[in-house]
Design brief:
homodimer; elongated; 7 helices; four-stranded antiparallel β-sheet; about 25% strand; alpha+beta; DNA-binding
DNA sequence: CGTGATCTTGAGGGAATTCAATGTCGGTGG
DNA sequence: CCACCGACATTGAATTCCCTCAAGATCACG
């Protein structure tokens, strides 16, 4: 049997397609399943009682999400656009964990990846708007780009809710980065990183 | 053998005492050990190149920290005041994990606790200064209080760096909460929660 | 090609920061 | 025991960054 969880997960469950903006699971629902993105993309978010929304992360093909190791989900998840996922029952995983020693180790690895992501996200939120935007673009060029052209699956409101900014600030900073010839906004969803070094110089680590 | 990791960890390693403000480990140091607080308290933080600091969490007696499930620490950790810790080698834990099936499960539980803490911290950082402060006080009254009197181990600068605020804002909001008779600042480090319900009404979930 | 959703831009306002001065606490030595 | 000193905290004034509100531009899609 294939013991590489992240790669073999597709052997373990069925595929389901979600329409743009449809809910995959809701916050505080039973976390009976977790998911691997095949195509499309997903936002995980929390909503406050007054309507404010924080997006905790975006998931693109290859990413695993919903693994919160708790009985109930800490986030809601929605398809940003039409999205295909492979679904795996947590109970199935737990059964496998009994017979395959490497599974718990791999779950810990996935957990530590999520933990690092969450810590970096928190760190992002204390930075200036420009730093947040630059960091976001550099993250996206690593994850969702062909060459230096980022294909953004999400709209400005999603970016704003991920970065803890208003939609107007996101727009203004993108335009100011364009004015500084760091990027070029080809369409709303396609951004060319003309000068990644310039973006990097705007971040601090 | 006792299989309750969180409670039995003290059986497994020696005790070490750290002086006030001394470093326990540094960011990106090898994560060979993890720790349980016996007395005193600890701050875990990241520092940006320009000197800004973010405190990711405070640890008080009973808490386990340094468990990042990665080769290198993601945070630095310092004793806030004179602090006694029990130290456990990660290698020891890994050896135990081979012979005791419940250990990996317990590590996952600790990981999920840290994950939830990190997510809540990120959510905190998009809220208003007053909301952050109210939430912090309510968290502390659960963790480090006798009755309704909070004993703060940390100074204002630590609170500021945890909440993503300036020290002046922390001070101003504490004083405004006192003016509103929600709290009473007995000394800089001792705060009476006169009206927890008033604080709760300032938060949103 | 029209229509609604999404995005941009401008003007004004507000929350939190920075800078600067003052106040308070806690420990130490006289 | 108390007065002093340095560290820590508070307060005020001015500023800055980002938000909100409002209007206009652009895009996607039927």
């Amino acid at each position: 049997m294939n013991t590489d969880l992240k790669n073999s997960i597709y052997l373990l469950g069925p595929t389901i397609t979600y329409r743009r903006n449809s809910e995959i699971f809701g916050e505080s629902e039973a976390a009976d399943y977790f998911y691997k993105v095949i195509s499309g993309s997903v936002r995980a978010y929390k909503t406050l009682s007054d309507g404010r929304r924080q997006i905790g992360g975006f998931y693109i093909p290859g990413d695993v999400f919903g693994l919160e190791f708790t009985e109930y989900h800490a986030f809601s998840a929605e398809a940003i656009r039409d999205t295909k996922l492979i679904i795996l029952k947590r109970a199935t995983m737990n059964a496998l964990a009994g017979s395959n020693v490497s599974i718990p180790q791999q779950l810990l690895t996935l957990a530590s990846t999520e933990l690092r992501r969450a810590h970096n996200h928190a760190l992002l939120l204390i930075k200036s708007a420009q730093e947040r935007m630059a960091e976001f673009l550099l993250e996206m060029v690593e994850r969702a780009a062909e060459g230096n052209i980022i294909e953004l699956p999400m709209m400005r409101q999603d970016i704003a809710d991920y970065l803890g900014l208003s939609i107007e600030t996101v727009s203004r900073i993108l335009r100011s980065l364009e004015a500084a010839t760091a990027i070029k906004i080809l369409t709303y969803r396609r951004i060319l990183l003309q000068n990644p070094a310039a973006l990097r110089s705007l971040t601090s680590h």
